[in-house]
Amino acid sequence: MTPEPNIQQVVPFLAVANIETSLSFYIDGLGFEKTKDWIDAGKLRWCWLQLEGAALMLQEFSPGKRPPGKLGEGVSLCFQCKDALAIYKAALANGLHPQRPFVGNAMWVTILPDPDGYKLDFESPTGAPEESLYPITD
């Protein structure tokens, strides 16, 4: 008998400079929903965000606790989608500035950095030729 899987999900925990700025980006820009939060002394300290099958957690650094250097540097979150181009179009419509989609490894890929520099890659399978660029129409 095969045992039931123990690990259910991995949820990135992102330390952010300003949680309100990050919430605006993730909720208003990308459509995430805040499903859990921790409020301490009237201030939002931590939250869980959900978008369909993906989740992430945000927590603002406590005063004086932010490490030196750029936040998010070297960190990529790769969201596997049915239609990455739909994410691209929705992000544009919501005032965000995603990278023009391209085909890499047989997938459409569009990249969008969050306010702290965490790189969000939205990817979906395609039969389009490698290195194709999504046509821009005005």
Order of helices and strands: EHEEEEHEEE
CATH architecture annotation: Roll
State the total count of DSSP E strands. 8
Largest sheet: 4 strands, mixed
CATH homologous superfamily assignment: 2,3-Dihydroxybiphenyl 1,2-Dioxygenase, domain 1
Radius of gyration: 17 Å
User: Order of strands across the biggest sheet?
Assistant: 1-4-3-2
Oligomeric grouping of the chains: single chain
Q: Kindly, what is the distance between the CA atoms of the first and last residues, rounded to a whole number of angstroms? A: 57 Å
Level-1 CATH class name: Alpha Beta
Average residue-wise pLDDT = 95
Low-confidence stretches: none
Q: What would the CATH topology be?
A: 2,3-Dihydroxybiphenyl 1,2-Dioxygenase, domain 1
Q: Overall 3D geometry?
A: globular
Structural class: alpha/beta
Q: Tally the structural domains.
A: 1
* Count of helix runs: 2
Report the sheet-strand fraction.
35-45%
Write a structural description:
The chain is an alpha/beta fold and 138 residues long. It has one domain: 2,3-Dihydroxybiphenyl 1,2-Dioxygenase, domain 1. It contains 2 helices and 8 strands, in the order E-H-E-E-E-E-H-E-E-E. It has helices at residues 19-29, 84-93; strands at residues 13-16, 33-40, 43-51, 54-60, 76-80, 102-104, 107-113, 119-125. The protein has a 4-stranded mixed sheet with strand order 1-4-3-2, with helices on one face. Strands 5-8-7-6 form a 4-stranded mixed sheet, covered by helices on one side. The longest helix is centred in the N-terminal third of the chain and has 11 residues, at 19-29. The radius of gyration is 17 Å and the shape is globular. The model has no long low-confidence stretch (mean pLDDT 95).
